[in-house]
Amino acid sequence: MTDPKATKHSWFYRWFLNNKATIALINILLALGVIWMLANVSWVFTPVGDFLMMVFPPVVLSAVLYYLIEPLVKIAERRFKIHRIWTITIVFVVIIGLIVWGIVALIPIIQEQTQQIIDNWPKYWKNIQATADSLLSSSQLDGVRDQINTQFDSLSKTVVKQFNDNIADWFSNITSAVGVITSIFVTIATAPFVLFFMLKDGPKFKKNLLAFVPVKFRQPTGELLSDINLSLSNYIRGQLTVAFWVGVMFSIGYSIVGQKYALTLGVLAGFLNLIPYLGSFLAIIPALIIAAFTAPLMVVKVLIVFAIEQTIESRFVSPLVVGSKMEMHPVTTLLILLAAGKMFGLLGVLLGIPVYAVVKIIFMRFFEWFKSVSGLYEPEAEPEPQVDTEKNKQDQAETDK
C-alpha cells in the first residue's frame, strides 16, 4: 500500500500538481484552445456581428447625446421641479430648432466654401509645383535635383493611381455604398428614439442591471459601473465642449484676420480637435496652405490666431471643463491613437481613448480584488526586537534593591 505522505511529497506532485507556474500555463493553454475553437466556428457569430454593426452606431450616437443632455435634464428636474418628460420634450424641441437653423444658415455657407476650395485646389496645386520648381532650380540642389524630381514624379503617379483605383472601387461597390447610406439613415432615424428612452429611464438603468448580479457582488459591480459612467461622461462632455469652443474661436479668429473659408476651416478645426493632442495641429495645416497662396502676411496672421487659440484653450477652456483630462500620460495617449487608428481607422482614433479608459477601470478593479484575495502585496511584518532576559532580570533586581 502506497504511503500517502510519500505520494503527497513526490516530485510529480511538487513539480506539476502543486506548482503555480504549471497551473498558470495550463490555464493559458486552455484559454488559447477556447480561442482557437471559437475562431474555427466564427460563422456561428456572424449574425450576431451583423446585428451589433447595425445597432452600434445609433446606440453610440444616442449615448454621446445622452451624456451631453443628461446634466440639463437633471438640473431642471431637481432645481426647478420640472417633470423629466417635459424637460426631455423641451430639449428635443430646442435641438430640432438648432438643427433647422444650422441647415438654413450654416450648411449653405460651409457648402459654398467647400466647393470654392475644391474649385481652387488645382490653382493651389500649380502654385505648389511652381514653388517646388523654383526651389529645385537653386544651384545648391544640383547634386540631388534628379533624385528629388524622380521621387516627386513617383509620388504624383502613386497619388493619381490610388485616386483612380478608389474611384473605380467606389463605382464598382454600389451595394456597399447603398449599405453605408442605409446605415446612416437608420442611425439618424432610430437615434432620437433610443436617446429619448435613455433620458427617460437612465436613472433606472443601473438598478435594473444590478438586479441580475448576485447579491454578494452587487456593491463592487455598482461601484464599477459608477466609475465607468463618470469616466465616460467626463471625457465625452469635456472633448465635445472643448471642440465646440475651438471651432468657434478659429472661425472668429480667421474671420477677423480675413482668412478665406473661415467658417469651414473653423468647423474642420472643431471636428479634428476630437483627436487628443494632434487635432489642433492637423487643423492648422489646411489653413496654412490656403494662407500661403493668399499672401505671405496671412501666414503670420494664421499663426497668431493659432497661438491665441491655443493659449485660451489651455489656460481657460480646458481647465474650466471638468473631466476633460483623463489623467493619462501623453505618450500613452499617442500610442493608443496610433494603435487604434491602425486597426480600426477613424473610428478607432475617436473611440480608442474612452475604450482604454473603460478597460483601465475594469483592470484596476480586478487588480485591487486580486491584491486583497492573494495576499501577495501585503507588507511583511517587521520582526519583533529580541529582549535580553538576563539583562532585564538584573535591572529589575537592582530596581528592587
From TrEMBL:
The keyword Membrane applies. The chain crosses the membrane at residues 21-45, 51-73, 85-110, 174-199, 240-257, 277-308, 334-359. Residues 388-401 have a biased composition (Basic and acidic residues). It is found in: Cell membrane. The keyword Glycoprotein does not apply. Residues 378-401 are annotated as: Disordered. Keywords: Cell membrane, Membrane, Transmembrane, Transmembrane helix, Transport. It is a multi-pass membrane protein. InterPro entries: AI-2E-like. It comes from the Bacteria. Pfam families: AI-2E_transport. Belongs to the autoinducer-2 exporter (AI-2E) (TC 2.A.86) family. This is AI-2E family transporter. It comes from Lapidilactobacillus mulanensis.
